[in-house]
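Troubleshooting: if your tokenizer reports a length mismatch, compare your output against this known-good record of 220 residues.
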Amino acid sequence: MAEQLIFDLASRPALHADNYFVSKSNASAVELLDKWPDWPEPSLIVCGSKSCGKTHFINVWRKLSGARKILASEIDEPLIDSLSGCQNLAIEDIDRGIRDETALFHLLNLTKEKNNRLILTTRKMPGDFHPSLPDLRSRLRSLPVFTIDQPDEHLLKTILLKLFDDRQINIEPDVLNYIFTHIDRSMSSIMAFVQQLDHASMTSQKKITKHFAKKTINMS
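Known-good structure output:
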């Protein structure tokens, strides 16, 4: 019965042997994985709202490329110097504060000069936030943007089922549907709840039924 709930979605290899499922919500960004390392530009932007799956996407790319990952709030000239041998880099949350805008601008130039690869993630489109450094603002707005929308219902339900399968939990369709309709529908919340439910089941040595799931949800 469980396999009937897998909604005919394509998948890609992902971190920790997960599957990276593909739907309309992330198809644009998945083009980057399919074309790696033949990208249209050395530096690219991946844009999407909170909990849409940007970090998971970055982790998939890191496995493919061996890239390092840092936050925009950490970037400064000494950090760039320490990354001199790094050919592939991901910088997350550039819309939430860039520690040193001049350093990031230099990094963009260095990436192009050395033909390295750089992914920048943001919750806002480049035209919707405003770095104070004009050159950086202009450069960011010139980069190709690949979007990740909020996962649709089929994608989230497939991920939920896959997370249970990864933990070797045989979940009945009615239980899965109950869980899906009663928890927050974001990737981070789904992953956290599956971990919580699995822990509760192992601790109590009880099977995950609809009643058990309801009790766990009420305790969340």
